[in-house]
Automatic annotation (TrEMBL):
Its main location: membrane. GO terms for cellular component: membrane protein complex; plasma membrane. Keywords: Amino-acid transport, ATP-binding, Cell membrane, Membrane, Nucleotide-binding, Transmembrane, Transmembrane helix, Transport. The lineage of its organism: Bacteria, Bacillati, Bacillota, Bacilli, Lactobacillales. The keyword Cell wall biogenesis/degradation does not apply. Signal peptide: none annotated. This is Sulfate ABC transporter ATP-binding protein. Gene3D superfamilies: P-loop containing nucleotide triphosphate hydrolases. It is a multi-pass membrane protein. It comes from Companilactobacillus heilongjiangensis. Residues 2-240 form the ABC transporter domain.
């Protein structure tokens, strides 16, 4: 059954050598009760551990059922201990934090015996050793004799072929010793029992065979045996602890020291708490910023003007005075000129804009630099008027009005809002009717006033009113006021010289039946201060009005004349270049190309989608054909967003330091736990646990600790947001700034777990490396 051949085991401590086993050769029968007697320190335990595979011999061979163990791997030894050997120790070695049943089941748990079978076998073993009635007690509620019975039950539960007992009655009184010996004697009927004892009386009474040991050598053997079979009929079933078993072991262990575990989890959760709060605050602030942005900044439209500033213009660093430049003057384009990009707004592009998904933007405004031939009537006096809010009083004729209009970026005067349903919604969103009503048709125009009901004085002067700075006007003086828009053909007369001149602004022109009648339908006030820049204060009208006027005028005589002439048909001056000519034609209403397009996105996210859509148009186009847009809101939000990110990174970095501190702490705590549980490691190894399984037990413990500290951290951080928000509200009037994002919370719990497991893994590996025999000897 078992054969030791010239087994040697030496211990080297410092310079001294202890020959614990010095060339031991002996064989055992499959069924017998062998007692090994000898003085303390003679090597008995070392031999027993050697037979049980807890302490591997230095040289010689141990042959089990005809199989040499010389080439056994660690896993083979683990499996051998688990399958074939049962250990009984003097100090019982019961795992205190597990139930009696769990203790007895542990060996089978390690070898993966199914639950039902495992439980059945464990109960049978406990009944066999006479513990049936005490099965539900906890280990610390048992007497010494009962503890030893549990140990015996554990050793025989999986029905091993070899039972190894190391002074099993050493800690028991005489009466109990006799009972235990009887039990072991009974067990030896079915298997090989090897018992180490220094009590010759016990050995004589119970054992079939007595081997005397001294100085690591067998002195005499009462019933020697020599194995004659060489046949190898040895089989092993490998052991493996599931992570679930490891978790259970760690959980029951942790349960015995609740307060300590809680404090540990709390201390190591501080890092998580700080990071969670930083994230909660920063995402809260970001949300606030986003809200403010979509309220205010989103009102800045994406603008596509005919003349755009190309922000990507290359920098000119070449300022050196080279040889070629030294003696000459170099003509050079200015930076501003270089940055200027002419957008070719074509019909195709207009269609492209029309195809913007209406879910992204319902509001698109087209501005045309078209002049309008407007006449106003005040107290019977007819005058030309404009809807511009710049000072045009200094130039009486329309040519100067035109140049002033061209000089202002707002186009030909007045603000333009989009037409149709979307225009109505747009006005309703930002403006409140102070008097009159919202515009109902393209011929209805409105007067925009600021939040204090003030409006631009030039706008009033330009429609023919005589007003002084600070003067107050009744609403009804403005609401309902009418204007006439005159067709080019009626407005201009052709002189024999070929140039055109406006007819005199009189009642005949005013009352012309083909005139359009415009009416101020209402006075509109901005709803919030942040909306003040959407439409400038003064007269505003729909882009449909301009479109209608262009339609009326695009085939007029003056437009035709201007198109075919190289001079300004109003002044007779020479037209220098194509751009100037185009501007003139535009002004006279001869072009349907808008001077600028403004797109108002629904919100920030959709704005990005629109920008992507606009960028797509430029794909693969020549530089000159690209369309450059201006995204004012974007430049502002990029700035604030970037700043917020930077602050968050710095704060998270600081909070990260506390996380690292917690990780180091976890390492220390796991290390102490390893020291505390050395005995348990020995027991598990004796039962056949692999190194990996031991690592797993401690990894499981740190996993529990990591999850606990993560969850605790997140919960505390969440609770902390309540007072933080209260303080912030009283200080800044912002509500619910700190908001812990659930995704962040989950990530933090995962991070906490991973870091804790990492921190505890090194001590766990140390635990696994512990020598089983040494671990069992420790107290
Ligand atoms: P017994 O069981 O007969 O009391 P042991 O087998 O425990 O004897 O010990 C035999 C000898 O080996 C003793 O001298 C003991 O000090 C020594 N010994 C046992 N284990 C170790 C060890 N891990 N390191 C050093 N010496 C050891």
């Amino acid at each position: 059954m078992l054969e030791l051949k010239h087994i040697k085991k030496y211990f080297y401590v410092g310079d001294s050598v202890t020959k614990a086993l010095d060339d031991v050769s002996v064989s055992f029968r499959p069924k017998e009760f062998v007692a090994i007697l000898g003085p303390s320190g003679s090597g008995k335990t070392t031999m027993l551990n050697g037979i049980g595979g807890l302490d591997i011999y230095d040289s010689g061979d141990l042959i089990i059922k005809g199989k040499s163990t010389k080439d056994f791997s660690e896993a083979d030894w683990d499996a051998y201990r688990n399958n074939s050997v049962g250990f009984i120790f003097q100090s019982y070695n019961i795992i205190g934090h597990l139930s009696i049943l769990d203790n007895v089941e542990m060996g089978m748990t390690l070898s993966g015996v199914p639950n039902n079978e495992k439980k059945e076998k464990a109960i049978k073993a406990l009944e066999r050793v006479g513990l049936g009635p005490h099965m539900n007690k906890k280990p610390n509620q048992l007497s010494g004799g009962q503890m030893q019975r549990v140990a015996i039950a554990r050793a025989i539960a999986n029905d091993p072929e070899i039972l190894l007992c190391d002074e099993p009655t050493g800690a028991l009184d005489t009466e109990t010793s006799v009972q235990i010996m009887e039990l072991i004697k009974e067990l030896s009927q079915e298997r090989l029992v090897i018992m180490v004892t220094h009590n010759p009386a016990l050995a004589k009474e119970y054992a079939d065979r007595i081997i005397n040991f001294a100085d690591g050598k067998i002195q005499d053997d009462s019933n020697p045996y020599s194995e004659d079979t060489d046949k190898d009929n040895f089989e092993l079933k490998k052991t493996k602890m599931t992570f679930w078993t490891a978790l259970k072991l760690s959980y029951t262990n942790i349960k015995t020291k609740k307060a300590r575990t809680f404090l540990t989890a709390f201390a190591s959760s501080i890092g998580i708490i700080s990071i969670a709060i930083v994230l909660a605050l920063s995402s809260g602030f970001q949300k606030q910023i986003d809200k403010t942005q979509s309220n205010t900044l989103a009102q800045f439209p994406i603008t596509i003007s005919q003349i755009a500033s190309n922000q990507t213009a290359p920098k000119n660093n070449d300022k050196k005075l080279t040889k070629a430049k030294k003696t000459k003057v170099t003509a050079k384009l200015s930076q501003a000129d270089k940055a200027t990009h002419i957008n070719k707004i074509t019909k195709k592009y207009m269609n492209y804009i029309d195809n913007i998904n209406p879910e992204l933007s319902k509001t698109v405004t087209y501005t045309y630099s078209t002049g309008m031939n407007i006449l106003s009537e005040n107290n019977g006096k007819i005058k030309t008027a404009t809807f511009s809010n710049t000072d045009t009083s200094k130039g009486a004729n329309s040519a100067s009005a035109m140049s002033s209009a061209m000089a202002t970026s707002t186009g030909i005067g007045g603000s333009v809002y989009p037409s149709g349903k979307s225009g109505q919604a747009f006005l309703k969103k930002h403006y409140k009717v102070v008097s009159g009503s919202m515009p109902a048709s393209a011929n209805d125009i409105v007067l925009i006033v600021d939040s204090d009901n003030s409006t631009n004085i030039n706008a009033l002067k330009n429609i023919g009113l005589t007003v002084k700075d600070g003067q107050k006007l009744d609403f009804n003086k403005l609401v309902g006021k009418e204007f006439k828009v005159v067709n080019n053909n009626d407005y201009y007369k052709k002189l024999p010289t070929g140039t055109f001149l406006p007819n005199s602004a009189d009642s005949k022109l005013y009352d012309n039946s083909s005139n359009k009648t415009l009416k101020i339908s209402g006075i509109l006030r901005v709803k919030s201060k942040s909306s003040e820049n959407i439409l400038a204060s003064g007269i505003a009208y729909s882009d449909q009005l301009t479109k209608n006027i262009i339609n009326d005028n695009k085939n007029s005589d003056i437009v035709a004349a201007q198109k075919g002439s190289s001079t300004n048909v109003l002044t007779g001056a020479n037209v220098e270049d194509a751009t100037t000519k185009a501007t003139l034609i535009n002004y006279l209403g001869g072009s349907t190309t808008p001077s600028s397009i403004m797109i108002y996105p629904n919100n920030f996210k959709n704005k990005d989608k629109i920008l992507k859509y606009l960028d797509k148009y430029n794909n693969g186009k020549k530089k000159a054909d690209k369309i450059v847009y201006t995204d004012m809101a974007g430049s502002v939000s990029n700035l604030t967003g970037g700043l917020m990110d930077a602050i968050t990174y710095v704060l998270v970095a600081f909070a990260g330091i506390s996380l690292v501190t917690s990780m180091i702490m976890i390492s220390i705590i796991t290390y102490t736990s390893v020291l505390e549980r050395t005995k348990e490691i020995g027991i598990l190894k004796a039962l056949g646990a692999r190194k990996k399984d031991i690592t797993r037990v401690f990894d499981a413990e740190t996993t529990i600790l990591g999850v606990a500290s993560g969850v605790l951290g997140v919960v505390i951080a969440y609770l902390a947001t309540i007072p933080i928000n209260a303080v912030l509200k009283s200080m800044t009037d912002l509500t619910n700034v700190a908001q812990l994002n659930p995704i962040h919370a989950i990530i933090l719990i995962v991070v906490s777990t991973v870091l804790t497991v990492l921190g505890g893994h090194i001590p766990a590996r140390m635990a696994a490396k512990k020598d089983a025999a040494t671990a069992l000897r420790s107290e």
